[in-house]
Amino acid sequence: MPSLNRLAAHFASENLEVVPVSIDISGVGAVRSFYERMDLDNLPIYMDPSKDIMRSLRVFGIPTTVLIDTTGQEIGRFSGAAQWDAPAFVTWLAKAMANEQSHQIDAPSSGPTRSNSVDAVDQEFPLIFLP
């Protein structure tokens, strides 16, 4: 989650939406406490304890990140913890955002790097919407 927070801050002026969805049944208070402990000030809080969004997007494990373009089409998916603000991924995402309207989005040569330390609550997964 800290790397997603940094990614959201990096693209704040680019109209990129990082939408972490919590499926935690403990409620928004537990999620808000986690955000405060982790200093996640660039990410909104969305709750779906029913897990309907996971079924809709066919997410079977968490964390899973889904990239969605402006037409609502999925253009990418990554399962597992990752370093979302890794330079290679930030570069790819910037290019994908620039080319999104022409749908010339190629997979990154090296995607986000896997993170050995889990920096996410295990009840959350993010969606990244391209502007």
The SS-based structural class is: alpha/beta
Task: Profile the largest sheet.
Answer: 5 strands, mixed
Shape: globular
- Compute the number of helices: 4
What low-confidence regions span 5 or more consecutive residues with pLDDT below 50? 101-110, 113-125
Supply Rg: 14 Å
The helix/strand order is HEHEHEEEHEE
How would you describe this structure to a colleague?
The structure is a single chain. The protein contains 4 helices and 7 strands. It has helices spanning 2-10, 28-38, 52-57, 87-99, and strands spanning 17-22, 46-47, 64-68, 74-79, 82-83, 113-114, 124-129.
Task: Give the helix/strand layout.
Blueprint lengths: L1 H9 L6 E6 L5 H11 L7 E2 L4 H6 L6 E5 L5 E6 L2 E2 L3 H13 L13 E2 L9 E6 L2
Parallel strand pairs: 1-2, 3-7
Antiparallel strand pairs: 1-7, 3-4, 5-6
